[in-house]
Specification:
The chain is an alpha+beta fold. Among the domains are: about 60 residues, no CATH class; about 130 residues. It is built from seven helices and 16 strands. The strands form four sheets. Strands 7, 8, 9, 10, 11, 12, 13, 14, 15 and 16 form a ten-stranded antiparallel β-sheet that branches. The chain has a two-stranded antiparallel ribbon with strand order 1-2. A hairpin with a 6-residue loop joins strand 1 and strand 2. Helix 4 packs antiparallel against helix 5 and helix 6 runs antiparallel to helix 7. The termini are far apart.
Length: about 350
């Protein structure tokens, strides 16, 4: 206690005997000090506090003591909080950003200088240019409202992508062009192949190659459409179609001509001849077939066939029929015709 409450006299001295007067004086001084203490009645759960000068004492509640000590929660100090507790557990390191992973739960993510530069921009335009480093073309491409506008920004004004290749360019893998590609130099098909679709995409343009196909077919001889009892030793056909022009070659050898009668035709061609453009073929080889003059063949649309004909030296044209053929007849045709597509 402060001396204002009790001052020790020093009598008797340590390890010495004292007389009764000295002891009574010391006890009297103690009693006077206790008399200065306020009564404790009615002051439960309170704390005794000595004033700043040490001349008096009082009692304080817990709330009053917090005020006295500058520890009022919400005014002087922060109350216990789960969010702050979680944040306090995070480490501190460069290029980190705190974020929540749940209620009152925090974690850290990397925030690089590049990301900070982007976030520091005050407008979307500055984010694209200063933040992301986009140039004028890149910024305009980002702002393009439609695919067509984007292509226009890149210098491809057509409604679909157009490839402009100059000098030496290499295209690898499968590429799909939705419009006509434009090549400003020689096209070198290093793989040795150019593929067309299985179904022709016909074009009316005079300078457009729209189809290429090659294959085989089964060549057959009929007599006015009939083929009863016919059998063959050889029965082959080969064709190459470039756009609408079909080149063909056939070889047919009977082992029996059968019983059908009528006009001789070679049928089985894979494409319908265009009847507005007369097409003829060449009889390259003929054996065991009787004829007068010169044999030849003419395309017909019903069915897809070539009719076998003969022209005499006098210029008379007639059809060959079953009568001209035998069980060992052989006929080889070749030629070209214009198909309907």
């Amino acid at each position: 206690m402060a001396n204002d409450y009790f001052a020790k006299s020093g009598n008797p001295s340590a390890n010495s005997l004292g007389d009764s007067s000295l002891i009574r004086a010391e006890i009297t001084a103690l009693e006077a000090a206790f008399d200065k203490l306020a009564g404790l009645t009615g002051n439960g759960d309170k704390i005794v506090v000595i004033n700043a000068g040490g001349t008096a004492q009082t009692v304080k509640t817990a709330a009053e003591l917090k005020t006295l000590l500058g520890l009022v929660i919400g005014t002087n100090v922060q109350a216990q909080d789960a969010t702050l507790q979680s944040l306090s557990a995070l480490g501190t390191a460069a290029d980190k950003l705190a974020y929540t992973t749940g209620v009152d739960t925090w974690a850290e993510a990397i925030l690089t200088s590049v990301a900070r530069t982007l976030l520091a921009q005050t407008t979307q335009a500055l984010m694209r240019t200063t933040g992301l480093g986009a140039g004028a073309i890149g910024d305009a491409l980002f702002l393009a409202a439609t695919a067509a506008a984007g292509r226009s920004t890149l210098g491809a004004a057509e409604d679909a992508l157009v490839a402009h290749l100059a000098g030496t360019e290499t295209i690898t893998g499968a590429k799909t062009f939705t419009a006509i590609p434009q090549f400003n130099t020689l096209i070198d098909a290093a793989a040795g192949q150019i593929k067309f679709p299985a179904t022709q995409n016909a074009s009316a343009d005079a300078n457009t190659l729209d189809d290429y196909e090659e294959g085989t077919f089964t060549a057959t001889i009929t007599f006015s459409g009939g083929s009863a009892g016919m059998t063959y030793t050889v029965q082959t056909g080969k064709y190459i179609k470039i756009s609408s022009l079909v080149y063909f070659a056939t070889d047919v050898l009977f082992s029996a001509k059968g019983t059908s009668t009528g006009i001789a035709r070679v049928v089985g061609f894979p494409f319908v001849p265009l009847n507005t453009v007369p097409s003829t073929g060449y009889v390259g080889y003929i054996d065991a077939v009787t004829f007068s003059g010169h044999p030849h063949c003419v395309a017909s649309t019903v069915p897809n066939c070539f009719i076998i004909k003969q022209t005499t030296d006098a210029g008379v044209v007639s059809d060959l029929t079953d009568v001209n053929f035998s069980d060992t007849s052989r006929l080889m045709l070749s030629g070209a015709y214009v198909a309907t597509s």
